[in-house]
């Protein structure tokens, strides 16, 4: 991959990382401000529900941050944009859509197909096991 393309993705990932860090910092700051301000139980319940949703979002973002760090490491090691399974280059179009991806389109589709088949098999196996336990 050309150095200018790698620099583009490095800058994109760094920008995404900054946004996620900023969002996390803002969440913590807002939660600290809200502590102990509400006396009405219903208001506290609504704030707590909002807080739980916010923390859930931050949990997903934490996973995204880990993916971003790993992508930046792959850029530094020279393995960015190479499929982890087949070793072929990942298209720039795919990297534009998801710069943290580890798989080319073909390998991703193969992985998803296997996952769907495994879920179907597990569901059918679970169905069979359940009906057998009821004497059907």
UniProtKB/TrEMBL annotation:
Matches recorded under PANTHER family: RNA POLYMERASE-BINDING TRANSCRIPTION FACTOR DKSA, RNA POLYMERASE-BINDING TRANSCRIPTION FACTOR DKSA-RELATED
Protein name: Transcriptional regulator, TraR/DksA family
Zinc finger (dksA C4-type): 83-107
Domain (DnaK suppressor protein DksA N-terminal): residue spans on this chain: 6-75
Keyword list, A-Z: Metal-binding, Zinc, Zinc-finger
Keyword match Transmembrane helix: no
Superkingdom of origin: Bacteria
Residue ranges of domain Zinc finger DksA/TraR C4-type in the record: 78-112
One Gene Ontology term of the molecular function aspect: zinc ion binding
